Amino acid sequence: MNKTLPKFVSRCLILLALASSSLLHSSTCVAQQAGQKTNIVFILADDLGYGELGCYGQEKIRTPNLDKLASEGMLFTEHYTGAPVCAPARCTLMTGQNLAHAQIRGNRDSGNGRIFPGQWPITAEVVTIAEKLQQAGYTTGAFGKWGLGPSNTSGSPIKQGFDRYFGYNCQRNAHSFYPPFLDSNEREVLINKYPIPGHDRKPEGEVRAEDYRAENYAPDKILEEALKFLDKNKKKPFFLYLPFVEPHVSMQPPQVWLDQYPKEWDEENGAYRGQNGYLPHPRPRAAYASMISDLDEHVGTVLQRLEEHGLTEKTIVIFTSDNGPTHTSRDKRFHVGGAACTFFNSAGGLRGFKGSCYEGGIRVPCLVKWPGHVQAGSKSEMPTYFPDWFPTLCAIAGTDSTTDQRLDGVDLTSELIGKATPDRTEVMIWDFHNYGGIVAVRDGKWKAVRRNLLRKNPANWELYDLEKDRNEEKDLAENFPDVVKKIEAAYIKTRTVEPDFLVPLYDKLTRQKSK
After folding, report:
1. Residue 303's closest CA among 469, 71, 88, 147?
2. Which domains does the chain have, with CATH numbers?
């Protein structure tokens, strides 16, 4: 600064510079408390539906800890996963990219010959939110189901920004809650001498829950390791990613939870015998509720440990689900694995289930608690989705979200703190490569869906006005052809061709666009 300026002018310039800096970096500044970085806990449920928590209207299943989390923070009414099944949803969350740009656009095994080979790996070039937070000085740990590449590949969590990993590296291993092993960093740790396979049938005879249990219940082992991580890193900033495995079938909940739900629930349909996949269970409705209550208890344990360490006020906690609830199958009395999703109105009245890009498959619960920043008992009606968390968590950590890869989300910090709803300048996209191939695009109140893109005769576009028709009952495509054309053009304009997940119809149009 020019030393010849009067002192009061110098002070004014200093104040002006500080004010400008504050405006330019408001998201970063609000995330810091006296120089202390905000700890981040991100909890991801597996196949938990929009209507399966008490705070979202569930009347039968007990979820006291998550309901309390909602009362102490913000509940999102229109939050979406990045994909309607496991691996691509996790890819969009970790990379900040929607399915028009993400490397993983559907569930696909890596096929390297192992019993549990793991899923198609993300490459070394992709940047994950864990890598960004690690570079920003955070200790990073992931505990639960990964699904983005086996150990000793580029997709391993240890090679993608996590200092510590424990859980199911492979989704197929996660089909049983009493598996032979779990992955600890890049080594397999045997946990059950006599494991339970994730699939079986019992067409006749008595179905007994105890026949499908072994010594060590994997969710408890995963929680135990996550708590050790918290204990070890309580005095330094951390990113704790908890992709818990419940309530994904098979249904193998602890007996203590089964005993708390009415036997009358299962008198009508009786035992589930494995006819829709996964494992039999004598009380499938009680079992499904028990899986969710067990998940709720694990979330409560994590929150309690934060409190014990005096970290509650220094931590943001985000809870959501990777996709909607388990879908129906052959025997219509039961959903896949015997799950009771119709009985519990698991999708909250929304159309569709897991694997669908209708609202029931992709709209998920989302709760955020951030003491001193997020108002207790508040709600957000902003349409948000998984790619938004990459820039948001970077802002909270006080680091730049810029990477060499395209990011598709918006920073939600101003929405969280109640200052302003951020503008979304581009459409939200789901470019999904399973279940026949589905594309869904949301643009404001409009949502367009096109199915069967990987089959001989792709379906026509459907169009819904979500402000008036949240259940997607009235297709307006013929009434508003210009809207459909505009949405399709926006989708084609932004998407890229992914060689491992091809959609011939739109790949051709995408290549023509780039010429």
Report:
1. 71
2. 33-416 (3.40.720.10), 436-514 (3.30.1120.10)
